[in-house]
Amino acid sequence: MLVSLEGLDGSGKTTVWESLKETYPEAVFTREPTESWYGDAVSRSISADDADPLAELFLYTADHADHLSRVIRPALADGDLVISDRYSDSRYAYQGATLADSTIDDPVAYVQSIHEPFTRSPDLTIYLDIDPETAAERSGKTNKFEQSAYLKRVQQNYQRLIDATPGRFVQVDASQPPKQVLTDVREQLDAVL
Ligand SMILES: Nc1ncnc2c1ncn2[C@@H]1O[C@H](COP(=O)(O)OP(=O)(O)O)[C@@H](O)[C@H]1O
Ligand SMILES: Cc1cn([C@H]2C[C@H](O)[C@@H](COP(=O)(O)OP(=O)(O)O)O2)c(=O)[nH]c1=O
To answer: Which UniProt keywords apply (predicted)?
Structure first.
C-alpha cells in the first residue's frame, strides 16, 4: 500500500513522517524531492529564484520517475507499506501554481496529464490542512515557495485535487498541537491498514 503525506510547506508533514517511523518500523519511508542526484538537481532549482517554471516541472518529474522505478514499485512489489513525504500531488498543486501565469491554459490538468501514462497513484493521501499564513510562518519563508500569497494558490490547487478524488484523501487539522496531529494521522492510517 502506498500512502502519501501532502500539505503546504510548514504543515508538519516531516514531523509526522519522522514520528510514524516508530509506529510502523517495518514500512518503507521515502520522500520527494528524493536524495538521488535528480533530487539534488531539484534542490538547486528550488534555490534559484529565476528558475524557469517549466524546466523546474520536468526536473521534479524526472525525480519522480526515478523514485517510482528505483524505490516505490520495487517496495510495493515486495508487499511493503510505503509512506512518502510528498508525492505526485505536490507537483499538481505546486507546479500548477508556478505555471499559473504561463501560456498553459490549465496547468494542474497539464501536470496531471504528463504523469498519467507512467505514475502510480497513492492508495491513501493524508492532507495536513493549514492556512497559508501559518504555513509560511512555520516554514520560515526561506524559499520562493514559502510565501503566503503563493501558498494560497497551492492550497486552492490541493482543494481541487481533493474535490476531484475525495475517496483517496483524508484531511487532518494541522493547526492542532503536534501530538494531536500525530494521533489523528495514526487513527486514519490504522483504519485503512
Ligand atoms: N502541529 C504543529 N504545531 C506547531 N508547530 C509545528 C507543528 N508541526 C510542525 N511544527 C513546526 O513547524 C515547522 C515545520 O514543520 P515540518 O514538519 O518541517 O513541516 P513540513 O515538512 O510540512 O514543511 C517545524 O519547526 C516544526 O517543528
Ligand atoms: C515534491 C515537490 C516539492 N515541491 C516544493 C515544496 C517545497 O517548497 C520544496 C521542497 O519540498 P520539501 O523538502 O518537502 O519542503 P517542506 O518540508 O518545507 O514541505 O519543493 C514542489 O514545488 N513540487 C514538488 O513536486
So the answer is: ATP-binding, Kinase, Nucleotide biosynthesis, Nucleotide-binding, Transferase
